Amino acid sequence: MSDPKKPVAPSEQEIGVVVPQAQHFDTPLLLQCGKTLPEYEIVYETYGTLNPEKSNAVLICHALSGHHHAAGYHSVDDKRPGWWNACIGPNKPLDTNTFFIVSINNLGGCHGSTGPKSLNPETQKAYGPDFPIVTSKDWVESQARLADLLEIKQWAAVVGGSLGGMQALQWAIDYPERLRHSVVIAAAPILSAQNIAFNEIARKAILSDPEFHGGHYYETDSFPKTGLILARMLGHITYLSDEAMREKFGRELRAGELKFDYDIEFQVESYLNYQGEEFSKNFDANTYLLMTRALDYFDPAAEYNNDLTQALSRAKCRFMVMSFTTDWRFSPERSQEIVDALIEADKEVSYAEIDCPQGHDSFLLDIPRYTALFTAYMDGIAQEINQ
Amino acid sequence: MSDPKKPVAPSEQEIGVVVPQAQHFDTPLLLQCGKTLPEYEIVYETYGTLNPEKSNAVLICHALSGHHHAAGYHSVDDKRPGWWNACIGPNKPLDTNTFFIVSINNLGGCHGSTGPKSLNPETQKAYGPDFPIVTSKDWVESQARLADLLEIKQWAAVVGGSLGGMQALQWAIDYPERLRHSVVIAAAPILSAQNIAFNEIARKAILSDPEFHGGHYYETDSFPKTGLILARMLGHITYLSDEAMREKFGRELRAGELKFDYDIEFQVESYLNYQGEEFSKNFDANTYLLMTRALDYFDPAAEYNNDLTQALSRAKCRFMVMSFTTDWRFSPERSQEIVDALIEADKEVSYAEIDCPQGHDSFLLDIPRYTALFTAYMDGIAQEINQ
């Protein structure tokens, strides 16, 4: 929830107002699926200042429902900061006094970068279902092209949580020379059958919504709102731990007493419906489909005999892997698989399993032990830069 | 999956063909929600023979999607046995050589007992959404009335898994004199916020299906199939452990290679869709809504100052509580809450936590350690009867 009292002016902890930027790319991008994007636009934000050596740049990769607006505010009246404001800003783990932070909206997104709701130059209509499925590999490629334009030869670090962490991992494999650190938070080396199963139900809810119109709903006056709400509600359950939900809602009733019907009885129902409803106002259903498939398809070992160790042997950076005890979407065991492969590949890796009740969403929050460890690791990177 | 080679003739392990029975009740039933069912029918099956002392009767309570057909076959050509055939039959834990087993379809169900698709005598149309929400307390009451008619004053045991286990617990509180043992398997003393959240999404999928027609779909030529499929797919994920899904499907592709679209790519998607589709052919959406609400509302401590120990202090029976290590729907911790309250209430309780990978569905399966412990406990009851 946003805090209306939050300061939007730059301060010891806040970046203040930030302005998104857009970059058009004319060079076609060949995607993993075999299709080509003839041209595209990437929207991004930057926080902090690039040093003359261009050695302090950090790339932030976003998760399923994220976008470029990771920190700060979009206006002085803006009540809601970027999605990772807890971790990005002056004197925060990703310290804007030290780092030049680049945060982009991934291709296929719905917040400005080219995606399903963008105009297809071939048809002059929205791409809709014709927008090709992009993967983490494609994102890394598009992010590398933006880095070229920004003249960033090597990231001090590529950082992300969840699907963002997967991109940080993919970077280390695909562009070993172009990053010094990979910070992989609350991620997994590949989705489990259960992860895919949840995604499939979310997609089915959207695809079977009569307002979906085969993905061509932009040409109608409606959109698959119910399907998108269902998808988000389901996702939301997997972001919270059982413990966190119990703590937050227990079995509290909305009306104080049972009504014995199928309307909302319990606070947790009310909360989930509200979250789904709000999400549906700001997210595109075709992008939701695409992002869940990008998760399903994430498989960095695929090109290396399905051997994660072999894949990670290519890496030249150092790694920080973090997980959260109550995360059941990507449990600590999944992070440990990454760590084990890194050790087997003889890479330098730090690993922290944070004991906290908040579940998968922990990576977005200011949890003291997490913040402290994250800060310490990033401080180490800062020291390397200043040496 | 059914095994077409399974014997349907009575044997050392199989009951053979069973015939459901129906019992009409004219006495109105006042429900927990405050409404009254003026008359109703209960469909049930029995396995084994009631002894002259009527002391060997065991009541089976079913879970969300269960019904009266718990064991045996409905015809010699029947390829699929009842849902708990693994545990009911000659020389099985619920041994039909010893016990007279009664298995009923709960009120509100869709397999013969009065429920939403039954005729409302007041309107001469299907009840549909006007069928009142029934709870575990109501089921216990209706089950007690059937016991009266069968002249069973006291059950040797009331037994159930999941929502069935909750009814076994409710029996011990509501009719302490009428059972000697309560066998509570893979259950919880009350639903968690996460449990309710999953139910809410399942209900929303059904309620928002355009074919739901406010629950009056019986009068149309369709039904909320997609919503029911989504609900079942979601439920199904919670019945299996992450481990079991990984073991069963991994990330195996249906077509051998990625197609990069939103059709079914992975075996786990195919399986879930198939399960949902099959389920939708044999289950009623209004009943699904009702059963999930009965779960949400289960709260045996509510009448006793929200104190489970106080509630269970009323009990006079002995208890067997069983849980499964990989059950994340109702985890072992939830069973332990029941056990702790029973100990605090100074009741006699045996508890077994079975280490197995199958998740919540374990209670339906022939898992050697589970079967052995279940058999041992039921053998003890048999010895009491024969004394």
Short description:
The structure is a homodimer of 387-residue chains. With 387 residues, chain A is an alpha/beta fold. Chain A has ten helices and 14 strands.
Structure description:
The structure is a homodimer. Chain A has about 375 residues and is α/β, with parallel strands linked by helices. Chain A has 10 helices and 14 strands. Chain A has helices spanning about 135-150, 165-175, 195-205, 225-240, 240-250, 265-280, 285-295, 310-315, 330-345, 370-385; strands spanning about 20-25, 30, 35, 40-45, 55-60, 90, 95, 100-105, 120, 125, 155-160, 180-185, 320-325, 350-355. An 8-stranded mixed sheet of chain A has the order 1-4-8-5-11-12-13-14, with helices on both faces. A two-stranded antiparallel sheet of chain A has the order 2-3. Chain A is globular. Chain A starts with 20 loop residues before the first strand and ends with a helix. The model of chain A has no long low-confidence stretch (mean pLDDT about 95). Chains A and B meet through helix 3, helix 4, helix 5, helix 6 and helix 7 of A and helix 3, helix 4, helix 5, helix 6 and helix 7 of B.
